[in-house]
Amino acid sequence: MDDGPEREILRATYRALCEHGYADLTLKEIAAESDRSKALIHYYYDGKRDLFDAFLELLYEEYTDRIDAATGDTATERFRSLLAVLLTDEGASSGRGFRTALLEVKAQAPYNDTIREHLVEFDAALFDRLETVVADGVESGEFDPSVDPARVAECLTATVQGAHARRVAIDGSTDELYETLIDYAERHLLADASGSLEVER
Amino acid sequence: MDDGPEREILRATYRALCEHGYADLTLKEIAAESDRSKALIHYYYDGKRDLFDAFLELLYEEYTDRIDAATGDTATERFRSLLAVLLTDEGASSGRGFRTALLEVKAQAPYNDTIREHLVEFDAALFDRLETVVADGVESGEFDPSVDPARVAECLTATVQGAHARRVAIDGSTDELYETLIDYAERHLLADASGSLEVER
After folding, report:
1. Which of A110, A165, A184 lies at the smallest CB-CB distance from B155?
2. Most buried of the four, A82, A110, B185, B187, by CB within 10 Å?
3. Per the domain annotation, does B55 fall within a domain?
4. Are B164 and B177 in contact (CB under 8 A)?
């Protein structure tokens, strides 16, 4: 990753956002977190909106890199790995300040087209990865053939986002939810799940 | 519902919140939405934090009344009715302005103990109703006896909150998610679900 002035300004934006939140984020705060002057930031970016557009673009790249790092030889392993990236602390790339700021940014979406368009991209990327891994599992015969990958992905996309919102709002852990979703997968996605449950009863 | 000055001030708070959001909410904005003066509001409430505490308490009462209005003769019907209240437009008590403000309020929780305590109550009320209806279904034999009510409730609490966050952030509909969760229930909660799936295959 090169550390030219633009990248360095975006890193300073991250630090300023964690510290001050979105509402109080100004070019002045960003300059204070950076080696650059407010004038130099203005040279690269037209204003807060323009800079934040570039910032969300960088964040999107990092987010997709992170979820694409979920690996495994089988769809079942990739599904577990993806949920671990999304829900466990080991998978988290960011602290509480950043998660809080991100929820604040979401609440800005109705008033800000740029933010909304980026959030639609983030949402679509998450949905896409979840749908792909479930579809892979159905195709390989690992998952129940009656599972609808789009429906599972729709539901899990909401669940993951709710887990992140709850983590900020009530400081709730997502670890237990991770266990619950893995349990859900083992019971209801795996091709032999209903069979093994029948045996248990 | 009586319309004494306190109740009238809290109604004005709702209108001001929908219009201005939480960050820009001041006693002046609330007075402007009300028949009361800023001085009178100060007579009843020490400041924005105190007033907002009372506002969230009223909101909690209305929220629990709304989710407790989910009815049905069987646990399966009550489960469907509860999801309809939580996820469909018919069940919604509030418009987009309010939903947006509520997400903004959630992002304030890490900085504001009063808000966080109220959000913990909201979350617990939702979890409790979901857990109760699933436990009822297991007890009555309608739901699969291997279903863990607390785990299902934990997962659905996150899913419902994620659906609301997505609705604000990307203007996503929750209707499809409602269908998906009803479908999930029919496949995986109902006692005869695995049996009927076996027949389909």
Report:
1. A184
2. A82
3. no
4. no
A 28-67 residues inside an 8 A Cβ radius of B: none
The answer to whether A147 touches A189, Cβ cutoff 8 Å, is yes
Q: Quick check: B130 and B154 in contact, CB under 8 A? A: no
Residues B68, B20: one domain? no
Would you state the structure tokens that stand for residue A163, as one six-digit string? 């887990």
| Rounded Cα distance, A128 and A118, in Å | 15
In a domain, A53, yes or no: no
What gap in Å lies between CA A187 and CA B35, rounded to an integer? Answer: 57
pLDDT in tens, B163-178: 999 989 988 788 888 8
Percent of chain A residues past pLDDT 70, beyond the cut: 92
Contacts of B165 in chain A (CB under 8 A): 103, 106, 161-162, 165
With contacts defined as CB-CB under 8 Å, which chain A residues touch B109?
A: 168-171
A161 touches chain B (CB under 8 A): yes
Q: Count CB atoms within 10 A of the CB of residue A150.
A: 14
Number of domains in chain A: 2
Per-residue pLDDT of chain B (201 residues; tens, 9 = 90+): 456 889 999 999 999 999 888 888 899 999 999 988 899 999 999 988 899 999 999 999 999 999 999 999 999 999 999 999 999 876 666 778 888 999 999 998 988 999 999 999 999 999 999 999 999 999 999 999 988 999 999 999 999 999 999 989 988 788 888 888 888 887 888 887 543 333 333
> How close, in Å, is residue A164 to chain B by CA atoms?
8
Contact B104 A109 (CB under 8 A): no
**Residue B66 token pair:** 């709304």
Distance between CA A72 and CA A82 in Å, rounded?
10
Between CA A44 and CA A51 the distance in angstroms is 8
Same-domain pairing of A66 and A24: no
A20 in B contact zone (CB under 8 Å)? no
pLDDT at B194: 47
CATH code of residue A10: 1.10.10.60
Determine, for residues B157 and A166 on separate chains, whether the beta-carbon distance falls below 8 Å. Answer: yes
Q: Is B176 on the interface with A (CB under 8 A)?
A: yes
Are residues B86 and B159 in contact, defined by beta-carbon separation less than 8 angstroms?
no
